[in-house]
């Protein structure tokens, strides 16, 4: 495995779930997007983004049209994906599938990437949960759609990827109060002593209260860790991806 993948996770159940989080290293994008930028909406050369996305598909062992991307508009829109596509899924911030071999990707550079799975039912989701989306309830919407697709909330496990930490994510006091009202547990104080938000803490509380089986977390702060893209740190920058997929039956080991 090349250095572009910083963290991976897999299940040990009959349905094999794979999860990866990329870094900013290992791609072809030029400054200020160097180098493994996967965002197609930040001003980078489209050819470079396409090359980076194709490399990611190769690295995780899927065809490019099996790696599914979202437009991401900070909404609570959820889309069910049933087949490969070369097109970016428009106007959505969450993807759900029951199809093995389809890899669902969410982009971030401070927002929280959320990966969800019910291995027994064979239902997975990738969610883009920024301040706005988390505040307006994108995660409960996704859980509800997963249940419609056959999942049981008590079997769903969650993974929260690298994001802006509460010690660095500084916001006005009124904004902190507003988000806390809608996403309890997210209000904090930064290391400077100013009002802050810890969206991962709020989302963890929300997920556990909803009855999910457990929440794992990549603790890295995108603002602090220069191996990751951060819009707050650099403004004009790229995006890393968090990806989840179920291995196609032919790729699974005999149990």
Explain this structure.
There is one protein chain. The protein is α+β, with helices and mostly antiparallel strands and 255 residues long. The protein has a single domain (17-246), classed as CNF1/YfiH-like putative cysteine hydrolases (4-Layer Sandwich), CATH 3.60.140. 23% of the residues lie in helices and 24% in strands. It has 6 helices and 13 strands. The chain has helices at residues 46-60, 131-136, 138-148, 173-182, 199-210, 231-234, and strands at residues 5-10, 17-22, 67-68, 79-80, 94-97, 103-108, 112-118, 123-129, 157-160, 187-189, 195-197, 214-217, 240-246. It has a 6-stranded mixed beta sheet. Strands 1-2-13-6-3 form a 5-stranded mixed beta sheet. The protein has a two-stranded antiparallel sheet with strand order 10-11. The two termini are 25 Å apart. The model is unreliable at 5-13 (pLDDT under 50). This is Purine nucleoside phosphorylase. Its cofactor is Zn(2+); Cu(2+).
What tags apply to this protein structure?
single chain, 255 residues, alpha+beta, CNF1/YfiH-like putative cysteine hydrolases, six-stranded mixed beta sheet, five-stranded mixed beta sheet, 23% helix, globular
Detail the topology: elements first, then pairings:
Elements: E1 5-10, E2 17-22, H1 46-60, E3 67-68, E4 79-80, E5 94-97, E6 103-108, E7 112-118, E8 123-129, H2 131-136, H3 138-148, E9 157-160, H4 173-182, E10 187-189, E11 195-197, H5 199-210, E12 214-217, H6 231-234, E13 240-246
Parallel strand pairs: 3-6, 4-5, 9-12
Antiparallel strand pairs: 1-2, 2-13, 5-8, 6-13, 7-8, 7-9, 10-11
């Amino acid at each position: 495995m090349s250095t572009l993948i910083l963290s991976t996770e897999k299940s040990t159940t009959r349905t094999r779930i794979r999860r990866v989080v990329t870094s900013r290293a290992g791609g072809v994008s030029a400054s200020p997007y160097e180098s493994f930028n996967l965002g197609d909406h930040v001003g980078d050369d489209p050819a470079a983004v396409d090359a980076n996305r194709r490399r990611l598909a190769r690295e995780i062992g899927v065809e490019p049209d099996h790696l599914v991307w979202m437009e991401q508009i900070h909404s609570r829109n959820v889309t069910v994906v049933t087949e490969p596509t070369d097109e970016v899924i428009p106007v959505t911030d969450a993807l759900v599938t029951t199809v093995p071999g389809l890899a669902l990707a969410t982009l971030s550079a401070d927002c929280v990437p959320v990966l969800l799975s019910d291995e027994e039912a064979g239902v997975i989701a990738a969610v883009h949960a920024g301040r706005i989306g988390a505040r307006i309830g994108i995660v409960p919407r996704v859980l509800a759609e997963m249940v419609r697709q056959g999942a049981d909330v008590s079997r769903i496990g969650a993974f929260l990827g690298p994001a802006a930490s509460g010690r660095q994510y500084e916001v006005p006091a009124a904004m902190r109060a507003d988000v806390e009202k809608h996403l309890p547990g997210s209000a904090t104080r930064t290391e400077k002593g100013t009002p802050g938000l810890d969206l991962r803490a709020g989302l963890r509380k929300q997920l556990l209260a909803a009855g999910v089986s457990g929440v794992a977390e990549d603790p890295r702060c995108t603002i602090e860790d220069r191996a990751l893209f951060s819009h707050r740190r650099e403004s004009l920058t790229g995006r890393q991806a968090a990806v989840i997929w179920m291995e196609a039956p032919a790729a699974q080991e005999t149990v």
